[in-house]
Amino acid sequence: MEKDQDKIISEVTGSEYKYGFTSDIEMDTLPKGLNENIIHEISRRKNEPEFMLEFRLKAYRHWLKMEMPEWAHLKIPEIDYQDIIYYAVPKAKPNLESMDEVDPEIRETFTKLGIPLEEQKRLSGVAVDAVMDSASVKTTFQESLAELGIIFCSMSEAIVKYPDLIKKYLGSVVPYTDNFFAALNSAVFSDGSFVYIPKGVRCPMELSTYFRINAANTGQFERTLIIADDDSYVSYLEGCTAPMRDKNQLHAAIVEIITHENAGVKYSTVQNWYPGDKDGKGGIYNFVTKRGLCKGNHSKISWTQVETGSAITWKYPSTILKGDYSKGEFYSVAVTNNYQQADTGTKMMHIGRNTRSLIVSKGISAGRSNNSYRGLVKVTKGAENARNYSQCDSLLIGGQCGAHTFPYIEVDNKTAVVEHEATTSKIGEDQIFYCNQRGISTEDAVGMIVNGYAKEVLNQLPMEFAVEAQKLLQISLEGSVG
Amino acid sequence: MLKIENLHASIEGKEILKGINLEINEGEVHAIMGPNGSGKSTLASVIVGRDYVQITDGRILYDGEDITKWSPEERALKGVFLGFQYPVEIPGVSMVNFLRAAINEQRKYRGEEPISPSEFLRIMREKKNLVGIDSALTNRSVNEGFSGGEKKKNEIFQMAMLEPRLAILDETDSGLDIDALRTVAQGVNALKRPDNATIVITHYQRLLNYIVPDFVHVLYKGKILKSSGKELALELEEKGYDWLQDDNGNGGI
Hints:
B: 6-stranded mixed beta sheet, 12 strands
């Protein structure tokens, strides 16, 4: 039996990353290392107003006083922050009018990923703000969105064009003092997306950004800000893959979401950055701070994430339920394979009255990986009638991986109802054989079982993403695909 | 169709099958009987390629080809089907998806297009009626929360859907009440064709009241002690297995 187990493990977990290639695009980079001069230079190159430079410098000075957090269930190799390039932009012209102006090399890269912009545009009606490394290369559908008063542009553009909104909201949910990586990001963030949905507008299309880390030794520091004004709604998609690398790459993004009265934001992520090779060499370090603020009454923020990539994941998309009757949801599938490590989960902070939160977390561990769920449900004194339901399931493939659950519950109001359920299961050799006996290969069987297990979360994704995510789950766990 | 020659097989170094010879032709139903621990399930496992059973000698020929090195999927796709003694539950995978995947694998193997949804549903309806399986079951996850009887019926339903050439039913009758037993048997009989064959593994004679075998084999301590016509089953029911030892001088039970 042991031998069979080993065989299944090695078959199922022996998969190499499918998107391991780099594209050869001319880059405009600053020298390695971090100091105030670098920050001045980043800000200058981006033509930022003075307040932004100050924001960055304050963050940087604060960061210098901070230390990397060590509480996560992760083994993080030492990171030399002076050995990282903090600014890299493809040397393409900004503000392109049509697809023809996009660097053919970049378009080719997207094609290789199976994400052709044109097809996306034509077939799915998704407005795509494609980020290649640090600068936004292409923004589509801006015009039709602008007619509705929706702003969807790169963060750099927003800083220049809408300084009032930026001053008001940037750092209002995740202040630079929040944590080590948030401070670092605030100091050096390169670009990202900005979304503003005006009062009463329901965004007619899914907004989507594809990220791709593409220059060796370049840290990627994305910054996303989404503001949904009263009675508005938007669904935002983020998806990423990255090229094969030998050296670890640091990624520390910040996503901030603000929903005003009766507004809703649905934020979906499919993350497939390079996880390192079979022996655990290479791979992205992903230290992300994602947080939403349900500011207005009856507002809602829903996070859905499918995490299959990165060597190390440190990520807790959270929601502050400040408005009365506000609602937070978190749906997550996190897959770890080979030597990947993930410490991920969510925080639900109940502040307003009659606030609700729902957590559905599905961890899948294979190979020698470690997968932890870490979640905090906090009900503050004034949060009358707060309700939370959490469900944390772990699925193990093989006997050498680990699954851990760290639920924290802090309740300061007696009217709160907080429920937590957790299960652990294992893909058994018997299940695999049962499928084999019906003519279904081990890889397909694992894919089928894993997708069945994660169905609840995958169903939350918009249609076109759900299909992609299903394939991704299978690919991440397959032995020898294609 | 199936020819087993001098098959020796062991599990974790312990020899379970000690020289099995068996030949099964198209259109035949064979019953393999024997007390617990005689190697009946091991024989079924080794035919479908479970890899915890190691073949130490002999071979298994299927349509003249030695299949002992084939993967379980390959054997399945060539038409070898096992009705499991203990069908496993696969939570989250619906019967419909599971069966469609299995049928499409078969079609792919034969170089055919995937089955259309309407055709699939039509066949499913037809086979459900044949086996007498509850419609609601096919909307659930594979075997999840099924009763013992439902699981067994589900095995026959899958057999009906996949139309194997060689079906091996491993103690399909165990744990069934008489009604379920009858349904299962009816299903098996209805699926019988001149070009397929069935191996029924059981240690009760009662299933053989409903499925009439052409041959009965008695497996004992890893060897086939006796092969005969269907009347052997009745004899076994009456006398037990003890009398066989005298016939062969092969040690007590």
